[in-house]
């Protein structure tokens, strides 16, 4: 469902974009962390798949919402698995959303500043850029690991704002996470958009209190008018 009434594109000149689920299909990440990693852990430790899933679920919950939750180095050390290598073994699952390129093209041609702001680890970001050429469609790419804080943290928003110098009142932030959108709102980002279908293999999700979309192409006519 699209709520255009809450996005005044004429007043938006900076667009901050999440990556996984927002520009890329989240299926790769969900499959990797929820299916592939438990299989590898079970094989390494000689335990059942159910035991591996239970352990990993507890590990995930312990750091949910923190930078470690997204950190390849943390999970490599914690689980004794080469997370970077394991992700490359299924890299064929990495793909752009079907509406991503038309969306990015319209944003760039409208003269807006378009910046990737992702919690993904630099190794994950590097692999995905390598396979999708996403960097060719963005003005800047930022992994929050360079700030040692995730988008759930107000300190991250303060630091990014200081570095980028954007006007929160004229900025749109797009993400598939309700808690992260809430963090952006607390910081003062005026325009916020949730992604209802981050994983092409899963049902749509709902957002509470945020405009949301399942296809960026529904916004293109408004985007092309450019900011005032």
Structural description of this entry:
The protein is an alpha/beta fold and about 230 residues long. The chain has two domains: about 5-25 and about 95-225, HAD superfamily/HAD-like (Rossmann fold, 3-Layer(aba) Sandwich), CATH 3.40.50; about 30-90, no CATH class. It has nine helices and six strands, in the order E-H-H-H-H-H-E-H-E-H-E-H-E-E-H. A six-stranded parallel sheet has the order 3-2-1-4-5-6, sandwiched between helices. Strand 4, helix 8 and strand 5 form a beta-alpha-beta unit. Helix 1 packs across helix 2. It is globular and about 60 Å long. The model is unreliable at about 1-5 (pLDDT under 50).
**Spans of at least 5 consecutive residues with low confidence:** 1-5
**Approximate strand percentage:** 5-15%
Query: What is the share of helical residues?
Result: 40-55%
Arithmetic mean of pLDDT: 96
H/E element sequence: EHHHHHEHEHEHEEH
CATH fold label of the largest domain: Rossmann fold
CATH top level of the largest domain is Alpha Beta
- How can the largest sheet be summarized? 6 strands, parallel
The backbone outline, from C-alpha atoms, is globular
CATH superfamily of the largest domain: HAD superfamily/HAD-like
> Structural class, judged by helices and strands?
alpha/beta
**What distance separates the N and C termini?**
26 Å
Count of helix runs:
9
Strand order of the largest sheet: 3-2-1-4-5-6
What is Rg? 18 Å
- The beta-strand count equals 6
CATH architecture of the largest domain: 3-Layer(aba) Sandwich
